[in-house]
Amino acid sequence: MQTHTHTTTDDQHRAGIQAMFDLVAPRYDLMNDLMSMGTHRLWKRRVVGLASGSGTAVDLAGGTGDIAQLLVKNDWHVTVCDASQAMMKAGRERGVKNANWVAGLGEKLPFSDNSIDLLTIGFGLRNMTLPQEALCEAHRVLKPGGMFLCLEFSTPQAWLRPFYNWYSDHIIPRLGAAIAGRREAYRYLVDSIREFPDQETLKAQMQRAGFESVNYQNLSFGIAAIHQGSKAP
Ligand SMILES: C[S@@+](CC[C@H](N)C(=O)[O-])C[C@H]1O[C@@H](n2cnc3c(N)ncnc32)[C@H](O)[C@@H]1O
């Protein structure tokens, strides 16, 4: 399902995001640990725990390879696919082993139809210029019966929002400036999280892309969520 005509503005947006990740790559892992106080590691384990069996897996927007590394340990044959060479280089230098690394865009995946058993994406969909196309692409490359798992920031429960908003506005940009020297990149992070669809909306988008049995579970009171769907057998 192609719903969008590609424009120069899309290309510029995508190039801007890619350049930003190239710049933050060297400090990316440290920033994740600091901002989430290590919680992102637990969330990623939860994702991999949902991936039953083994076979061929693509970790889309896989960055420095956190999810890929966990999948490799569980005997998956993993390919990290990411738009940023610098992010993947940081992952290889960190010692992520036995994974393949492929440069590619989520909106135009470099894999053939019906070829992959599992597609994971962690904190990547929010950064896609055309997320609905990325969902359709994920569906296209999965084998019938294949599984899609998406870990992404989402909408926290109402009682948590005042504290969460304060933390997002005051702490994250300051950490970004102090540790990564990139306040604007971490301001973008906060804005992109606010603009991203909530749990039910993302579920509907996955269904529109063709996924079946779509469901989600909240993590840390909805700060993040794992959406799960499968391609019809
Ligand atoms: C926030 S990082 C997530 C990295 C990793 N999955 C993790 O959870 O730590 C987002 C990643 O998405 C990649 N990315 C952004 N836009 C993309 C696109 N259109 N296609 C593929 N990757 C993209 C970036 O290069 C970056 O590595």
Explain how this protein is built:
The protein is α/β, with parallel strands linked by helices. The protein has one domain: Rossmann fold. 40% of the residues are buried. The model has no long low-confidence stretch (mean pLDDT 95). The site of S-adenosylmethionine (SAM) has 22 residues, from helix 1 and helix 4. S-adenosylmethionine (SAM) binds next to helix 1 and helix 4.
The total number of structural domains is 1
Round the Cα radius of gyration to an integer and report it: 17 Å
- Low-confidence sequence ranges: none
Order of the strands making up the biggest sheet: 3-2-1-4-5-7-6
- Number of continuous helical runs: 9
Question: What number is the mean pLDDT?
Answer: 95
Q: Tell me the helix content.
A: 40-55%
Beta-strand share of residues? 15-25%
Give the strand tally.
7
CATH superfamily: Vaccinia Virus protein VP39
Oligomer type: single chain
Give the topology string: H per helix, E per strand.
Answer: HHHEHEHEEHEHHHEE
Please state the structural category: alpha/beta
N- to C-terminal distance? 19 Å
Shape: globular
Specify the biggest β-sheet.
Answer: 7 strands, mixed
CATH-derived architecture: 3-Layer(aba) Sandwich
CATH fold-type name:
Rossmann fold
Question: Which SSEs are present, and which pair or pack?
Answer:
Layout: H1 8-24, H2 28-36, H3 39-49, E1 56-60, H4 66-73, E2 77-82, H5 85-94, E3 99-103, E4 116-122, H6 131-141, E5 142-153, H7 161-180, H8 183-195, H9 199-208, E6 212-219, E7 224-230
Parallel strand pairs: 1-2, 1-4, 2-3, 4-5
Antiparallel strand pairs: 5-7, 6-7
Helix pairs in contact: 2-7, 3-4, 7-8
Residues 14, 17-18, 21, 61-63, 66-67, 82-84, 87, 105-107, 122-124, 127-129 line the site of S-adenosylmethionine (SAM).
